[in-house]
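Look over this record before class:
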Amino acid sequence: MIDTHCHLADGAFAADLPDVVARAKAAGLDAALCILSADEPDEVGRAAGVRAAWPEVQFAAAVHPHRAGPYAGRAAEAAAIVAEAADGVTAVAVGEIGLDYHYDFAPRDVQRDVFSAQMALAQSRRLPAVIHTREAWDDTLAILRGFRDSVPTVLHCFTGTPEEARQGLDLGFYISLSGIVTFPRAGTLVDVARLVPDDRLLVETDAPFLAPVPHRGKRNEPAWVAETLSAVAKIRGTDRDSLAATIRRNFLKFTGLPER
């Protein structure tokens, strides 16, 4: 199994990372994609410890939309910071990037500028992009359409409607489901889990956030991607091992990594 999106360099794991990795391996995981906040030096600095604890982990780096505010008029500087962090960890993707109009921690125009600059970076480096979008669907698609043929894209932690999922799929995007799909009030997200084609589906934890049932309320960790994988397999009427193999193929295709 692969956890295709987690934050293992987050401070939440600093005290017990070896144990977290041991539990992930015991659960059957052999890889993960660790997302780094490129403009947080402490987090970037912890990436070396993550790699030492789990050499099979891959990395992505970016300036999150929540942190776009300081880059007003300086979107190119944000992209340069991401490029430096990505070089330091040999990143296989740019992310997570995008727009978040739910919290509006950064002005929307600045979010759009920083998002576009990082998409251009992904394009120039021939890297895929990991997208965060919340209550900003139309503006997110407007930017992504300009890169649809040059930047492989995944809609991380998808929480949109089936119609939005179809729009993303029509543009060639992957859709990644998190532990939210296990929640009693998952609603139409269950329909999304059914409609995504086999070759566009990914599954993630977003750890330390969004722990799946039966672990809700606790710190999430990569081992628990197994819970989400089992839930999605049940929704789709397939077995977990078969779905895990599908997720692996999709992840390798998305990142361009070779099969070991």
The chain has one domain: 2-255. The longest helix spans residues 108-125. Residues 131 and 155 are 5 Å apart (CA to CA). Residues 2-255 form a domain with the TIM Barrel fold (CATH 3.20.20.140).
